[in-house]
Structure formats: C-alpha cells, structure tokens
Amino acid sequence: MTLAFDTSSKTASVALLQDDVILYDTIINVGLNHSEVLLPAIDQACLQTKIKISEIDLFACTIGPGSFTGLRIGVCTLKALMLTTGKPAVGISSLTALALNVSKNSKIICSVMDAGRGQVYIACYRYNKNGLLDQIGTDKAVDPREIIHNPEQEIIFVGDGAIKYADILSNNKTKEINIASALQQYIRASSVGFLGREKYDRNELLNAETFVPVYLRSADAHMKKALFDN
Fold first, then answer.
1. What pairing do the DSSP bridges indicate for beta strands 58-64 and 2-6?
2. Are 12 and 34 in contact (CB under 8 A)?
3. Structure confidence at residue 196 as a pLDDT band (50, 70, 90)
4. What's residue 105's pLDDT?
5. What is the pLDDT of residue 222?
6. Which of 161, 158, 166, 164 lies closest to 133, judged by CA?
7. 82 and 195 share a domain?
8. H or E stretch including 80?
9. I need a labelling partner for 147 at 20 to 30 A (CA). Which of 87, 108, 174, 189 fits?
10. Phi, psi of 167 (to 5 degrees)
11. Which residues contact 155 (CB under 8 A, 6 or more apart)?
C-alpha cells in the first residue's frame, strides 16, 4: 500500500495505490498554500478508501525540482510520516513524474516546469524497450529561449512551463515538436506512486534524517543553456 503526494508546483496531489492499482488520485488546484491542503487531502484519501496511515507500507513524495516553499512542505510532511510510522519512503523527481503524463511512444519527452523569473526546470526522457523511462542528460534550470534541440528528433514537451512558453518552444524550423495538452500539465500523485514502487524495488530508500529537497538553483542562480543533442 503506497501513499504518494506532490507539492512541487502550484497544484497539490495525493494518491493511494495498492500495488499497481490506483485506489484514490486527486489534484488540488484552488490557489491555497500547500500547508493548508496537503494534510486534509491525505486525511480525505484515507477516509474515502477506509485505509489508516498505519496500514501504509510505503510513502512516496516529489522532492524537486519545483517551488521552494512547496517542496519544503512536502519534504517536512514526508519526514514526519516516516518518523511517526517507521515506514520506508522514496523521493521522486517531479520532472520524471511529469513525464509519465505522456503515453509510451518513440518520441523524446521533455518535462518543462515553470520555475519563475523567466526560467523553466527541464529534463528529457525516452521509453526503453522494457517500457520504462530512461533519462537523457540531467535536470536543469534554464531560460526557455536557450533550449536547443536536434531538429531531426521528435520531441514532445509537457508541463506548465511548456504551456506557458509554447510560442517560444515552437519557434523552430522543424515540424516534429509537439506541446502536450494543457490537461497533461499537472503532476499526478499516482505517477509518483508508480515511480516510488520502482525505487522501492531497487531499495533506493530515503534516510529521514539526511535527505533534502532538490532545488536545482539558489535564489541568485545563473541561467544555463540546455543542449538536446543525444
């Protein structure tokens, strides 16, 4: 039994999964601070499914990149759940969870989250022959105008950053770039749960005392150029 949640962007999401079966999955986009909605959303998930926190076997949460405040709320909640229940937990990249919004195909999937200050957080992926996501390169914080890609590659961009900067991303000579639907721009906690199960099976567990959010940049971070030439 996995409880998964995400607080890395302007939305919050919570899901409960039994093995690979989604029992409960919700996205909250009401403009409230995550500190106001996360715990009530977890309580509601448990209430609707009649599952107690003590019955959860694994906790999974996005640990970055994303909103500094949102990540801190998610991480603090995750640490509290780990320490009070003694159950294991895994940390998931918000960009990887976002990539799961795109169905399995041969295209390169580029997750793009709005980072504010005219920047985006990006990471690219491709499905392998086993149907699992392989990451291409590393997570970056960049100016969307500086995203460079190989025009011979088929790329699909997904996320709120892709929606916000669609005109910039589409301003190229190739016809092979696609922007995923606005309905696919938010991270689903069920995706966090699926990825969490994979990490659990690989024994990639978090230490409650030492793990920290992944911010990618400091408050005065310099913009970097992203190259997609793999």
1. parallel
2. yes
3. very high
4. 84
5. 40
6. 158
7. yes
8. helix 68-85
9. 189
10. -65, -40
11. 107, 108, 109, 110, 124, 149, 176, 177, 178, 228
Tell me: pLDDT of 38 over 50: yes
Amino acid 155 reads I
216-228, pLDDT tens digit by residue? Answer: 875 444 434 444 4
* 177-186 residue pLDDT tens: 789 999 999 9
Positive or negative: CA dihedral 169, 105, 198, 136? negative
CATH (domain of 26):
3.30.420.40
Q: What is the pLDDT of residue 176?
A: 62
Whether residues 109 and 167 fall in one domain: yes
Q: Report the alpha-carbon distance of residue 140 to residue 117 in Å, rounded.
A: 14
Secondary structure (DSSP) of 8-44: SSSSEEEEEEETTEEEEEEEE-SS--HHHHHHHHHHH
With CA atoms as reference, report the closest residue to 9 among 169, 219, 185: 185
Lowest average pLDDT, out of 15-24, 152-161, 165-174, goes to 165-174
| 44-73 exposure pattern, b = at least 16 Cβ within 10 A, e = fewer | ebbeeeebeeeebebbbbbbbbbbbebbbb
Structure tokens at 110: 């580029």
- Give CA angle at 35 (32, 39), nearest 5°: 110
Asked if 82 and 210 count as a contact pair (C-beta separation under 8 A), the reply is no
Domain that holds residue 36: 2-94+186-201
What is the value of pTM for the model shown?
Answer: 0.91
Let me know if 209 is exposed, middle or buried by CB neighbors in 10 A (0-12, 13-18, 19+): exposed
